[in-house]
Every structure is written in C-alpha cells, then in structure tokens.
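Homework help thread (please don't just give me the answer)

Our assignment gives two proteins as sequence + structure token strings and asks us to describe the second one. The first is just a warm-up. Here they are:
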Amino acid sequence: MWSSAWLHGAAASDNVLDSLLPWGEAHEVVAADDATASALDLPVTGGFPAQPAQLLGTLRRLGTPDTRLVLPVPGDVRGLGGGGEFPKAALAAGEAVVLPGAGYGIVPHHIAEGLVRWTVHPLATPGPVTPQDVGLEHLGLAEAEHGLTDAIRDSAGALQALDVASERPSVRSELSARLRARPSPDWPDGMPGRALRVLQRAEEIGAILEVASTEEPGGALSASAAERRADALRPLSEAVRTARCAAVNEAVRVFADQANRP
C-alpha cells in the first residue's frame, strides 16, 4: 500500500521506508537470478544486497506497476502464475507481492532477528501479462467482507463445540499477547476507510485463529480432535486470507485512481 501511495504521489519515499520498520529493523533487496539482476539493476542473490530505496527506484523505472498482494497456502496458489522458483518461494513464505504487468514477483523472508530480505523473481509467464494471466481475479471488498462475516457465523457453532477457551483457561491472555506482538504499521494518507476496517478485522480474527489452532501445552490434543479443529477453522482461515488480500488490493486501486483523476 505504501509503495502504491508513493508511486502515485500520495506519500514520500522516506515515509515508505519508515513503514518497513514494524516488520524488521533492517531490510535488503536481491534478485533471484542473473537475468533479473541485469534487467532491474539489482544485485543477485549471494552478492552484496541493495537497500529498499533502490527497489523503489526500480519500481519507478517499471512505470508505476500494478501491485497485488498474494497469501498462498498449500492447495491455493492463485496469483503465483504457474511454474518456476517464484511460486515455491512465495508458498514457503506464505506471502508475496506480484507485479503482473512488469512480469515480476517479490518475496519477503525473515532471515535473522530484525532482518528481512526481499527477493525479486521473474514470473513464469514473461511480462507484461494481465492479472488474469497469473490467476489474480478481482474480488470486491464488499464481497470479501461479507465472506468474512459469513465464515464467522458458519464457524461459530463448530468453534463453540471445540470449546478451546474452557480447555485452556489462559486463552484470553494468549490472545492479548499475540495482538500486542503483531506489528502496528502506520497507513498512508488517503487510505480508504472501508479497506482499513476490513484489514483490521481480518487481523484480529487472524490472531484468534492462531490461538485456536495452537495445540494445548503438553500435546494433549488427540489426532482426531486436532483434525476436527483444523476442519472447523479452515473456512475462517480462508476468509481471513481473502479479506486481507482484498483490502490491500483495494487500497492500491484507490491510490491509482486518485492519481489518474484530472
């Protein structure tokens, strides 16, 4: 969202770089292969890495590319664009940024305490391609928000039957601790209110899911109970991922539209 705001004149580059701090004290950028390194003027993996400011310059040279968030999991790799190393890296990280029009994807990886490495990969289908070419179908924010609400309602009975809270009296304190530990990023001026609301709600439910899916101390949960719990939580987890992507991608769209207005 910050890079989109900067590319479209709604944020300063210093603000974009500062926005990275909640995720790590230091960030570095590399290209996954020699061809990408040469095309984007970035160091290749294994060389001395570049700083995030250099990646911003690369994005500018690409011509304010469309950027999309993807949160792949096993069984759902929409948006990764087929074969190659990018889908593998994105799936291992569970998150990536796709630049379909430019033909690249960027994967963050926490390589040490406080250090995040961003690796730029070529998409399997050479750019420029459309979002649909890499499986990025548009999902409206209203649809994603309704899906999240429906998933909460549909999962309520199953979650109550699991009764995680009674099995673990400390569950409320665990949830509070997880929420406090999550990064608290700032948002660009002009961030659409509904997108922010959906994103924040998805983050809160995501924290609940993390607590609910964590095994009890001592590993007391049986295999069958663990499977029932996973089945109950899966639709809600999918709805959270969908809502996060829709909220971020809607904000990116809004910043682009604001810049294109006369």
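The one we have to describe:
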Amino acid sequence: MPIDQHEFRAALAKFASGVTVVTTKDAEGRFHGITVSAFSSVSLDPPLVMICIEKTAGSHDALIGSATFVVNVLSQSQAAVSERFATQIQDKFRGVEFNPGIEGVPVLAGCLVNLECRVQNFYDGGDHSLFVGRVEKATIMDGSPLVYFHGNYRALTD
C-alpha cells in the first residue's frame, strides 16, 4: 500500500535543508519570488542546479515563461525574508533589498549565495515542476545558513 500524503510529509520533515528564495521576472516584467527548500546541485560541468516548484504556486507560471531565475541561499538572519516569500502577498519585494541580476531578475541582498541561472529545461514532477538552470554567475558571502528542520528554522552549532 502506498504511503499517504500526511505520512510522506512527516517523513520529509525529518530532512534538514537549507532555505532559498527563488526569484524571476515574468513576460510583463513583474518580479516573482518564492521560498524553496527543494533545491540541489545537478552538475559541475556544466554548472547546473535544480529547483522544484509546486504547480499551484503563483511563481510557477512566471518560471515556465521565463528564461532566467536566481537562487538566493538565505543566511541565518533571513528567516523573515523566507516567511515573506512563502506568503501570498502581492508585493513580496516591498522593503526587501535587492539588485538587478541576469536579465534584470532580482538578486536579494544579504544572502550567503546568489546563483544567477538560465533555464536549461523543465520537467513534470507530479504536483511540482522541476526546473534545471545553468549557473552563469555566483556571488558568495561569509556567514551561516538558514536551516529548516521539522517545521522550524534552526541554527547550526559547532
């Protein structure tokens, strides 16, 4: 018998992950952003990453129509940024510091890493789509990551 959604979600909550905000821009030039924990590297040569976005998310269609996105890896002090981009509010970027990146896509300030990507391909993944992006630019800062585990933000300790 297959696992049910509740049990599957509970199992995955035991996997600690970093927290990212993926930003993009739609065909009309409107900015979109979404908090994403389903992010991973795919390849070193060429440099590829993957993000998984729920098909009902507001940013999903913008990503389908966009040629670019930025993966902003959040620092430990950016829990409020994660929360903001996880909501359904209209202007997620109000009060959030960012600079224009590849094709004018917002690059969030204060992150550990910003990966500016061109969409290489996207695939059906059930109720999500998997987007593979070729990394064209990386900005790397010092600090500690924002970590999510068992429904809460956590801090790494030495």
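TA reply:
I won't write it for you, but here's a hint about the kind of observation we're looking for: The chain has one domain: 19-145.
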